[in-house]
Structures are given as structure tokens and as C-alpha cells.
Amino acid sequence: MQEWPGLPFGNEEGQLISSQLGDKRAILLAHHGLLVATRSIEESSFLALQFERAARMQLLASAVGRICEIAADRAREAHDWLLSEEKRGLIFEYLARRALKQHSDCLS
To answer: Which of 38, 30, 40 is nearest to 3 (CA)?
Structure first.
């Protein structure tokens, strides 16, 4: 974990965040929240929603008791399935339709 230099007045903070992000697609910034950087708005939106869902599930599970890890190969299988381009696209389209239905004036 990198120590935050303080108020953002220059490029140092951006360089620090990008160095910590590395080749990953998301980073959780202490006292700030989630930052997602991917190739598209669709992918970033989907990944942010999945991250939020995973965090909520982690908190709920922690409240119940000890969390047991799953095997690495099963975790990789779930990761690859959940983040497949086809699944991501279908879920993003569904969420976009739902958002437009609830907020039909957002495009005007």
C-alpha cells in the first residue's frame, strides 16, 4: 500500500494512482472509493457494478461468520465466465434499458 502524498495539486497523485493500478482494471482508493479504467464505458460500468456487488456480498458474508476461500481454478472459471465479453454486453444492454425506462428524460 502506497502512502498518499496529500492534497492533489499536481501530477504526482495521477502518477501514484496509475503506478498502483498497473495492468489491473480497477483499484480501491482509501478514503475515495473505486476507480475503474478499461477500454470502454460498457466494460468500466459493468466492472464497477460487479465490484460493488462483490463488496456488498463480502460485507454480508462477514457478518454471518467465517468466509471460506474457494479453489483458485473455480475462482478463475467464475471470473472468466462473469467477465466474458458476451455476458458483459448483454448485462450492460439490460441495465441501460432499465435506466432509460426509469429515467426517460436523461437523454433530452
So the answer is: 30
Instruction: Give the helix, strand, coil percentages of the chain, each rounded to 5.
Output: 60, 5, 30
Residue with cell 496509475: 18
| CA pair distance 40, 46, nearest whole angstrom | 10
Span of 7-11, 46-50, 69-73, 104-108 with lowest mean pLDDT? 7-11
In DSSP terms, 27 is beta-bridged to 35
40: enclosing H helix or E strand = none
Beta 26-29 vs 33-36: how paired, if at all?
antiparallel
The Cα–Cα gap between 49 and 45 comes to 6
Q: Give the DSSP H or E segment for 23.
A: none
Would the pTM count as exceeding 0.70?
yes
**pLDDT value at position 9?**
67
